[in-house]
Design the sequence.
């Protein structure tokens, strides 16, 4: 079985090939898990009030603060597998 980083990299490619675009909540979850798995805890200033998309992404990622990168990668891989069916 491939190691977690290889599975994570493959999942980042697989997510681009989904038959249907996931709903916004699922997209935010994918984004947050990806960022936590690849970059760690959220960093930088929260986007301005009128940057609705940026704020939503920032807040989704911030909710995962403290989650280990391996756990985030595993959850990302599992979610992509679920979406692919």
Sequence:
């Amino acid at each position: 079985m491939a190691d977690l980083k290889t599975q994570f990299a493959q999942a980042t490619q697989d997510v681009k090939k989904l038959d249907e675009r996931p709903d916004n909540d699922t997209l935010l979850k994918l984004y947050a898990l990806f960022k936590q798995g690849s970059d760690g805890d959220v960093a930088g200033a929260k986007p301005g009030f009128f940057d609705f998309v940026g704020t939503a992404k920032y807040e989704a990622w911030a909710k995962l603060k403290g989650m280990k990168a391996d756990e985030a990668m595993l959850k990302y891989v599992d979610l992509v597998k679920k979406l692919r069916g």
Observations:
- The chain has a mean pLDDT of 95.
- The chain has one domain: 4-84.
- The first helix runs from residue 4 to 14.
